[in-house]
Amino acid sequence: MADEDTKTDEDRDEDAEGEDGEGEGKKKLGLKKLILFVGVPVLVLIIGGGAAAFFLLKPSPNAEGAEGEDADKDKKDKKEKEKKKKDKDKDKGKDGEPGALVMKEGPDGIMFVTMPDILVNIQSNDGRPTFLKLKLTLEAPNEDVAYALEPILPRVSDLFMSFLRELRTDDLAGSEGSLRLRMELLRRVNLALEDEGKVNAVLIEEMLVQ
């Protein structure tokens, strides 16, 4: 008690300040510990979640490579299918399919289109039954004209048959008769094509009168 009584007011103030400083120091230390215990785990979770999202959402190089390979494969398969279809169309009728055209590629993009054989009866001088057999090949300037012939084949055949039935055996005699026949057939096939293009020539591969 004596000591307390002998302390001056100044001494008491210093003691109070010391106690307050010690209390504030403890509070600050407690707050730092709280921040460490709460903040560090939260920070770890944020960093871990971001890293996980990065690895999960990042496209795999193997996946990109696989997608690229699949796309290239699809393009290659499509080209092969188109080529097979084109080759099939060119060889149509090659095995003797009735009513089909046979297409063969010539030089400089020319296409040779062979029609089915034509057999028609014509007029003879003595009145006997006479038949004309023709094997014709059309020379088209390009693939577009060649492929345009297929859908109009019935029209072309009809025009040819109507003309051929009016012929006489004398009309086919000699090179002049053969030339006239080719020119008349050429005019009719180009008439059937209309705006689809023009055929260059009609080639007579076989002509038989009997």
Notable features of this structure?
210 residues, 2 domains, Tetrahydropterin Synthase, Chain A, elongated, 5-stranded antiparallel sheet, alpha+beta
Structural account:
- The protein has 210 residues and is an alpha+beta fold.
- It has 2 domains: 2-57; 94-209, Band 7 domain (Tetrahydropterin Synthase, Chain A), CATH 3.30.479.
- The chain is 59% helix and 16% strand.
- The chain has 6 helices and 5 strands.
- The protein has helices spanning 2-6, 9-57, 61-90, 143-149, 153-164, 174-193, and strands at 102-105, 111-114, 118-122, 130-140, 201-209.
- Strands 1, 2, 3, 4 and 5 form a 5-stranded antiparallel beta sheet that branches.
- Strand 1 and strand 2 form a beta hairpin.
- The protein is elongated.
- The model is unreliable at 90-98 (pLDDT under 50).
Structural class label: alpha+beta
Which sheet architecture does the biggest sheet show?
A: 5 strands, antiparallel
Determine the mean pLDDT: 74
Number of DSSP strand runs:
5
| Strand composition percent | 15-25%
CATH class of the largest domain: Alpha Beta
**Contiguous runs where pLDDT drops below 50 for at least 5 residues:** 90-98
Number of domains: 2
Distance between the termini: 157 Å
CATH homologous superfamily annotation of the largest domain: Band 7 domain
Q: Round the Cα radius of gyration to an integer and report it.
A: 49 Å
Q: Helix fraction?
A: 55-70%
What is the 3D form?
elongated
Shape-level CATH architecture of the largest domain: 2-Layer Sandwich
